[in-house]
Amino acid sequence: MEELKPCPFCGRSHGLLITSIHHRIDDITLEQWSVFCDASGCKVGCGASCGYHKTKEEAIEAWNRRAKTQWVPCSERLPEDSSPVLITHRGGVSYGWYNGRYFERGANTNHRKLQTVIAWMPLPEPYLERKIDEGD
Ligand SMILES: [Zn+2]
Known about the structure:
The chain is mainly beta. It folds into 2 domains: about 15-65, no CATH class; about 70-120, no CATH class. It has 1 helix and 7 strands, in the order E-E-H-E-E-E-E-E. The protein has one helix spanning about 55-65, and strands at about 15-25, 30-35, 70-75, 85-90, 90-100, 105, 115-120. The strands form 2 sheets. Strands 3-7-4-5-6 form a 5-stranded antiparallel β-sheet, with no helix packed on it. Strands 1-2 form a two-stranded antiparallel ribbon. The radius of gyration is 16 Å and the shape is globular. The termini are far apart. The mean pLDDT is about 80. The structure holds zinc ion. Zinc ion (ZN) binds next to loops.
């Protein structure tokens, strides 16, 4: 199995959680897999997730993917999975995901529908902190 890359948001590689849940969209319940940067209990992760996927392997792949970041008009193409994306809508820019029917704002469990979505793009590459050489 593919190894998990560090969290694209907080850079942590410890405390990443691969989990399956029963995800409910409207009246349909699906078992889906996700990778979380675990923020529960005493964990110090940032709570980021890769969205929900059909298999564990797909979830890991999505977590590890570092997609090119540019706006994709919805009229051209919609996201292929429920990975987190940036969304341009009439109200500005939001963070959310595509559930296969419409865009939702925020985390995967909020179910707040975003109206008039114009475009979306994958999240940008994380900022990689570099240690500055001493004596420079
Ligand atoms: Zn994180």
